[in-house]
Amino acid sequence: MKTYQVDNEGFYGEFGGAYIPEILHRCVTELRESYLQVLESESFRQEFSSLLRDYVGRPSPLYLSRRLSEKYGCKIYLKREDLNHTGAHKINNAIGQVLLAKRMGKKRIIAETGAGQHGVATATVCALLGMECVVYMGKTDVERQHVNVERMKMLGAKVHPVTSGNMTLKDATNEAIRDWCCHPADTYYVIGSTVGPHPYPDMVARLQSVISEEIKKQLMEHEGRDYPDYLMACVGGGSNAAGTIYHYLDDERVKIVLAEAGGKGIDTPFSAATIHLGRLGIIHGSKTLVMQDEDGQIMEPYSISAGLDYPGIGPMHANLAAQRRATVLAVNDDEAIRAAYELTRLEGIIPALESAHVLGALPKMSFKPTDIVVLTVSGRGDKDLNTYLNYNLQ
Ligand SMILES: Cc1ncc(COP(=O)(O)O)c(C=O)c1O
Questions:
Q1: Which of 13, 22, 222, 273 lies most in the core, judged by the most C-beta atoms within 10 Å?
Q2: CA torsion sign, 149 to 155 to 161 to 162?
Q3: What cofactors are annotated for this protein (predicted)?
Q4: pLDDT for the residue numbered 1
Q5: How far is CA 247 from CA 42, 225, 227, in A?
Q6: 305 is catalytic
Q7: With a 6 A CB cut-off, is 193 part of the ligand 1 pocket?
């Protein structure tokens, strides 16, 4: 039987691994040797699950969206990660990794952030557990996600605006890695998605897998069966999607649909649709699909959404696409904005711009009336109100 899980060396098919500078070798090896032991220990599991329940507010609801279902001619359930404390799925991973960092004796936490949701989540957990926190964020994102910057500051984190490249997520990640190289002994780098060198993609997927664990139980209660016909999620680096599909990866009854950011269109120079446009390369320690020019230089991605404009993609997702286990659709800025308004007006839920991309994939699908669809709303749209209100839809 095919498996889509990671192997012992951190590869998903030909994607993944750990391509790191010598100076990080010790910390990545230390992490690799401790993460499974810690994540599977009873004391970690108890602390993690009680924080997810009492602090984050899990389980997040699985909500039958009646008016959206009517519109698309099937049964659509929304997995409401937007209702988590801090407003997105990112907190699941941040809690897990900061708990791990504490157990590894680290004192200082660093993180990169795009939309600011991972930065806010990490700053929140650092406040809760009394850890120093430094967040790298591209200057473009500092401007378009201003509210999240203020939240991080109030939580006690230091936010470093990054001015290299096009000043977005890739550049923030470069800076965080640079910091890590300078402080390898006392610093723990909390990566916010299923990217980076092994073991990060696997670790982040495991920490987010609570999403599909809950979907199984909740579908059983609602539908008397524990699997849907379709699972749908947006992909930036891939963490909310990984969490949504984790427990269904090898269940071929379930079709997986991923939405990446088309930007202004995949046939224009303004896109972040890495699975459509990328070629095999190495980015931030991982062998995966990378948007690059003919000389192998990484291209500047573009999306209206700060959380999706990354020129790489998690190795798990690159493999799912290569094996045709997942269907990947590119959803453009205007399609995402239209979909965000649609959900808001039909259901009274304002989604994050990132989540709006998977909603924008719905009109591209054709469902049967008996199909059960679970779509993850990865975050809420409060941080994106200015973008929504100022966008001129053609
Ligand atoms: C609400 C939300 N959804 C999705 C993403 C994309 O990240 P990932 O693909 O890791 O879920 C982000 C990233 O910032 C986000 O804030």
A1: 273
A2: negative
A3: pyridoxal 5'-phosphate
A4: 59
A5: 21, 14, 10
A6: no
A7: yes
